[in-house]
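W.,

You were right to be curious about this one. When I first looked at the sequence I had no strong expectations either way, so I just let the prediction run and decided to look at it fresh. Below is the sequence, 360 residues in total, followed by the output.
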Amino acid sequence: MRRVLLLGSTGSIGTQALDVIRANADRFEVVGLAAGSDRAGVEAQAREFGVDHVALGAVEAEQLVRDVEADVVVNGITGSVGLGPTIAALETGRTLALANKESLIVGGDLVTALAAPGQIVPVDSEHSAIAQALRSGEANEVRRLVLTASGGPFRGRSREQLRGVTPAEALAHPTWDMGRVVTTNSATLVNKGLEVIEAHLLFDVLYDRIDVTVHPQSIVHSMVEFIDGSTIAQASPPDMRLPISLGLDWPRRVAGVGAPLDWTTASQWTFEPLDEEAFGSVALAKKVGRAGATYPAVFNAANEQAVDAFHEGRLSFLGILEIIEEVVDRHEAPATLTRESLADAEAWARRTADAVIAAR
């Protein structure tokens, strides 16, 4: 029986994780739940699953990780506030099923230095796909990682055609049902930039050997190219329960968690190069990732402020990346990387982004 501590239990990742656990009660036991602010929701979940340990907010979630005995911690918290629980899970030696990419991106070397080999299991569909494909070869046989992107709702549009994009249009993602920030990040491809940084940190592959290709069907979730010319791809219908289930009990698979592809019907999968002129966020993310230190934290925080301003009508769609670039260019990293210096850098980035937006 695998004991699961689930953080972000009332969100998209959390509720789908509970779907998997509910269907496999002989295999998984929920020992703790944490939600952001939905007290009624998490209490209802606790009653259903017979859970005594419940937390609200990231601070309580971090303490819960340190106090509750568990085999795996699923971090499905949204945003960089998930850093504390991520660090707690690693320090207590638990397997970390990580859906909260921001904590890895923001924490960077601070997080990777704490992680034992194999302790972090990615839950993002792209990184789960890469982890699965990497089992086909040795680390020194990997030539490059290829992350797939749906292209979002604006695939094929030029930079000029993106000028008048509205918030409602940005939230109309063609494949995934996600929250406001993540859906907007998918429209700007900032999300893909963050995933490039995440891939570098998870798999220790140089940025020059991490590529992005646009795959509108979202069937191939990512690929690994090996030195002999082979490319191993992981393909499945878009359903987050598959990577979640792998996160719960890596590397063992959970039978029946998702529907397989239907090979009896005709279908086409297409791949296109990323238009970096229209969508410059991936190139900027690589630059930020190479700089390291607190730069990824600044990138992430500035983006969150810019996304809010866009949805409030104070910033254009193209202005989101412009704000991120300006804030990143103004930043000077501290001499040492600590939780305190990361928090200070994030706070500075949010203040600076707000000031730059207000000055426009």
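Here's what jumped out at me. The chain has three domains: 2-123+240-249, 135-237+266-283, 293-360. And, maybe more interesting for your project: The longest strand covers residues 28-35.

Coffee later to discuss?

I.
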